[in-house]
Every structure is written in C-alpha cells, then in structure tokens.
Amino acid sequence: MSHQLVLVLDFGGQYNQLIARRVRENNVYCEVKPYDLPMEQIRSMNPIGIIFTGGPSSAYGPESPRVSPEIFSLGIPVLGICYGAQLTAHLLGGHVTSPENREYGRTLIKADTSCAIFDGLSENEITWMSHTDYIDTLPEGFLGAGSTPATPYAAMYHPGKRIYGLQFHPEVEHTENGRKILHNFLYNICGAVGDWTMQDYAQTVIANARKTIGNGKVLLALSGGVDSSVVAALLSKAVGSQLTCIFVDHGLMRKNEGDEVEAAFGGWDIRFVRVDAEKRFFDRLSGVDDPETKRKIIGEEFIRVFEEEARKIGSVDFLAQGTIYPDVIESGTKDAAVIKSHHNVGGLPDYVDFKEIVEPLRQLFKDEVRALGLELGLPEYLVWRQPFPGPGLAIRVIGDITKQKLDTLRDADFIFRDELARAGLDRNVHQYFAVLTNMRSVGVMGDERTYDHTLALRGVTTTDFMTADWARIPHEVLEKVSNRIINEVRGINRIVYDITSKPPSTIEWE
After folding, report:
1. 291 — phi, psi (to 5°)?
2. Which has the higher per-residue pLDDT, 406 or 270?
C-alpha cells in the first residue's frame, strides 16, 4: 500500500495497541513493530514519523530495551511516550533517575503552548501519568515544554531535530486533550495528509486478494462473528464463487443468530454451507460441567465437522482466516507480554489440505473491521454484533448444558440486548450479555413458592478488551430488563448485575 506510514516501536508498553489506534483514528496508517527493528528495515519502510511506546523498564538499566541512537539522525520526527521519552533523553545525553515522589493517575501539567505539540491547547492540561522514573536533566539542545510539581520535564523537545518526549500518556482517554496532542504531532510535525481511509483500504485489499488468489479455490470457516463475516464479504467481492464458506451451527448460538447469518449471505456470490451439527455437539457435551473441558470438546468437534465438510469439497488452494491486528500484536512482539496464545499467527492448521493462508484483516483493529464491513455492504446488525466467545453459550451456562437451559438463556439474553438497544446504549456499552448460573434460589410468584435459576447480567466498557470496567447501566433500564425477563422467561426468579472490573475478573464468567 502507498499510504503514509507512522512506525510505533514497542518497548513492552500496555498501551501499544491504543497508540496505534489513536494514530489511525487520525486517518494516518501505522504499524506496531518491536523496538529492535533493524535500521535498514526502518529506512525501507520510509515512515513519516516514529513513536516510542512506554514500557516497564528503566532507561538506565543495563538490560533495558533500546534503539540505536542512529534513529535520531534519520531526519524523521520522533515522539517518545513515558519510557520512550526517558529512553530518548538517556540515549542523547540527558539524565534519568528515580525520584522520591512517583506520579500515577490524573495529573495537571503546565504546558508551553509555543511548542508545536501543544498548539491550540491551554497552559494547564489534565494528563494521565504512570511512571516511577523521570528526566531530571535534558539532553543538549532540548527545551522543556511542560512540568508538574513532581516532574520538571513532563514534556521536552528539540526544535531543530523534531524530537519530542512526553512523560504522560496522550493516547488514553484520561488525558483530556491527548487526541489533539497526537493530531499535532502527526499533522503539524510529521506532515501527515490523512490518506488512510476505509474506502481506499477496501479497494486496495480487494485488488490484492484478487491478485493473490487468482483462479484458486478459497475455504473459510464462517463463525457468524464480525471478523469472519467481513472476510466472507471481502472475498466475495474479490473472487466470488471461488469462495466456499462453511458455517458450523453447533446449537450454541444466540437467539435467531444462525438464521441471521444465513440470511445475511443469501444474496452473495459465494458457496454457503450451513451444517446442522447441534445433536453431535450436545451428545459430546452431555453431563460435562467443567468449563475448560467444555471448551476443548467444542473446539475439537468444530474441527472434526469442518474437516468433514472440507473433504467433501476436495483440495483447496487457500484457507482464509479472520486474524486481525490485535491478534498479531497479542501473540507477542519481543519484550511485550504474550496476551493470547490461541491465535493462528505464524502457525497453520493441519487438518485441511490447502496451499496457502490468506488473512485480509491482518492489518486492522476491530473498529476498523466494523467500518470495512459497512463499506462492503454488510447489514448493521451483523457488523455491530456483540462479541461472542468461540464456545458460544456453552460457557454462559454455568455447569452442565441442556437444550432447556440454552433456550432459557437465549430468551433472557435477547431481552437484555433488546432493552439496551431501545435505550440507545448498545454502542456505549462495549459488551453485554446474560449468564445462566447454576445457583437456584427461593422466590414467590403468584403467591406460590418457586425454586428457580439466578440469572446474571454482565456489561462492560473497554477500549481494548484487555482491561474493562463494569458499565453503569441506568437503574431504570436494569429494572425494565429484570421485569421483562421474570415475566417472559420461565425458569428464572432472580436477577443480579455483575459489578466487577477486569482485572480481577474476566469479562466472561467461564
């Protein structure tokens, strides 16, 4: 692709994805790479700017991750954030140390608005600090551009070399004008023109897929989730009937979901195969209550079904996957932690006979995948479908699984999602669902004693799904949800709302 590029070098910071997302929100394409990317590769990528992420190390430590000082001589603007700022100062002759007083959380800084990165901002800005070390002596030629009572150089810059350092995190929401600060860096300092648009990307990736696949056959496991659905739509436009989508309906989906997926692709120029595998999944899951065992059974059975259907097709040239950019990053970049190990990144499945793998969403974040889906003409109800775990409702029914429990949960979950949509909260609460617990309690309905299930409701807000806070859904909305479920769904007599964050909890219950 011929887009301008900003390079994000990762030093193990927890916000590496968020920095990249913020850059792309400004219509500037960027990629996250390990901090020790060879200089010749950096030159060949020809970035218009480079951003150093934060990280858990001390810049002066002998084993700390570092870049070659040569990077500052390329004439490319550099922005160091937190550890990235400290490393910049350390490598260029400044001094970094550990002070008596550390800064964490919401912090007011005094900013020098004559500095280009603070253009258009006020002298007093609310930022988000998270550091133990700080810069107490600037490198030669650098000027201070911001301070707090505890940090003499909350921001620094070299006016001639276009090198900037911020002790705070502009990428997080808590820094009130962080988006404006990053916009200033991208447009005022790096000279960005904003050439990263989803319309342009859609045309590019369709053309690339058409060129790569040629006359070959493509196979896709279509789960009904956003990622695989967008891959199906994209490849349909690229190669049409050369694509076969296998949709394994394991009977563990949400209400009407299987029919919605089939209807969404009914008019597309692809071969769509829906496999009714509910009975074989239920037979394998009968009497199983351990969540990890449930996951393994479902994963193994899914592979078997997919393999059987693939063999009916015969040899295919390409296997398509819905790998997205966070999957790539979370699979580990040098000193960054491996958050997820289950993604098919760098390893190919061995249960289908194919020649090559295609991953057309590999460069996109989830919000970009949704934007691409709309650009390709997918219906909103599919593009904005709530995130759904691979094992489906099997891990939202606590304990053993029965058809009756699943139907009860499906109806209750539908009401919860319906009421949040009616209240206009379906885009503000980033994930929400119901869980049928294995706890039963005494209730009273119609002057009679009941002994039925307790249903838990879960709603979270998050930017990256690595951490999440419980959603403050208005009480009157929760009241409507509770009343409807109790009145319309049999087998439930008590409803609770989960108010724990991630961590210490996970988003899912199992």
Report:
1. -65, -40
2. 406
